[in-house]
Amino acid sequence: MSSVINKSETSEPSAAPAEPASIWVFTELKALISGSQSFFQSRLTEPPVPRSLFYNRVIPLAAVRPVAVLLRSVVGGTPLPGAVVGLGSFALQIGTWLGLALVLPALARQFHAEISDRQAFSLTTYASMPVWLAGAFYAVPEEPAFLFLWSRTLVLLVAVFSIYLIRQGIVALGVRRKMQLPLLGGITVAAVLIYGLLFMALGISSHVALYVIG
Amino acid sequence: MSQAESEATTSTGVASGTPDDDHETTPGAAGDEPAGLYILELMAKTWELFRAQPLTYVAAAAILIAGGVLTFGILLAPLAVGFITMTSRHLRGEEIEAGQILEGMQNFGHALVAGVLIGAGVAAGTVALVIPGAVLAVLWSFTLHFVALEKQSALGAMGASWRLCRRHVGSVLLVLLTSVALSFLGSLVVVGVLISTPLALILLTFSFNELRH
């Protein structure tokens, strides 16, 4: 995986790496929500290096949900399964991010648009940030049921918002208007497929891990 | 560039290109994946090829699935190699028969070793937090094509697939996702898998040819 991320960096010797500004994540999130199109215009014109995004944004934010899951499990008295599921959900989020970022340029090509690797990693990262943060809702216990349903509904709504952010990113990238909706549909289907496949694989590996650990 | 296309160019420097555009329009796009696959085109060709002899492909898929299941997966890779060879023959304009899938037994050793190694690697990677398994599955996805069409050994084919797929990660991933989507749609109907399996394998073979040549 690191070699794939490195490929996006080392293949562009003439471009100075544009590190994200050293501002707090929440300030960036506020800018993303309040003015998404202008946010993407600036971020996608000089996209940050994928490695920098991975260490400064992806890892810390994708860790929110696993920590929430672990907390819930510790409170519920089942720390070991919580740790396994938490670790698995961390891998699930990273894998979905990586898969979507890798497939995005090829997917855009199908709709006569061009997105570079760096832009793909940036778009995927910033569009995923709200969903990763919403992972905090996974700390809500399963009882009472209405609270559980409420929390999961909120996560779903945030996921829909992320799709909207991707759409804003597509517009900022100058994709032809006729191709915006089909491309957005393609991205959504690809994301669901990647997530679904990794989820199934995670289910198998979690069962194996829990069986072995006993 | 037409006016509509030039209007699509923004300060990001991204222009909406046509499939024939090989030029890179974005700063920093140099070194990104070379011009890749066009899935809709490939799917159209896949369907055309399948439609030419649908019963042959359905019968071959039935042999592949039955052979794989009844032998607990031992014959799965060799039969897949046979299917790929059969598809390749059809692509060259030759008539094919379902029984030709059994010619994969000529590469039984290499196919079996490749299948076992890939299966073990992907399984181990999946248990180790999923992502390594997924990465290996993508990078080794054309191993059997190298065994079938270039007569490479198991390890040679795995290495060749690794090198080919690394250069075209995005396109390969897109093709694999399309194949998964096809297989999923096929599984919704009782015998749909007999149609979706050959379609997925033909699509993979077309993709291999495009990327390789």
The poorly predicted ranges of chain A are: 5-19
The profile of the biggest β sheet of chain A is: none
- The mean pLDDT of chain A is 87
Radius of gyration of chain A using CA atoms only: 18 Å
Largest interface: A-B, 56 and 49 residues
- Briefly note the structural class of the backbone of chain A: mainly alpha
> Could you tell me how far the N terminus lies from the C terminus of chain A, measured between alpha carbons in angstroms?
30 Å
As a percent range, the share of strand residues of chain A is under 5%
Largest sheet of chain B: none
Percent helix of chain B, as a range, is: 55-70%
Q: Please estimate the helix content of chain A.
A: over 70%
Q: What is the overall number of helices of chain A?
A: 9
Shape of chain A: globular
- Assembly classification: heterodimer
Poorly predicted runs of 5 or more residues of chain B: 1-31
Rg on CA atoms of chain B, Å:
19 Å
Structural category of chain B is mainly alpha
Spatial shape of chain B:
globular
Q: What is the H-and-E element order of chain A?
A: HHHHHHHHH
List keywords for this structure.
heterodimer, A: 214 residues, mainly alpha, globular, B: 213 residues, 10 helices, 66% helix, 0% strand, disordered N terminus
What does this entry look like structurally?
- With 214 residues, chain A is mostly helical.
- Chain A contains nine helices and no strands.
- In chain A, helix 2 (25-34) packs across helix 3 (36-45).
- Chain A is globular.
- The model of chain A is unreliable at 5-19 (pLDDT under 50).
- Chain B is 66% helix and 0% strand.
- Chain B has helices at residues 3-7, 39-52, 54-70, 76-91, 108-127, 131-139, 143-149, 154-167, 169-187, 193-212.
- Chain B is globular and about 40 Å long.
- Chain B is an all-alpha fold.
- Chain B contains ten helices and no strands.
- The chains are: A mainly alpha (214), B mainly alpha (213).
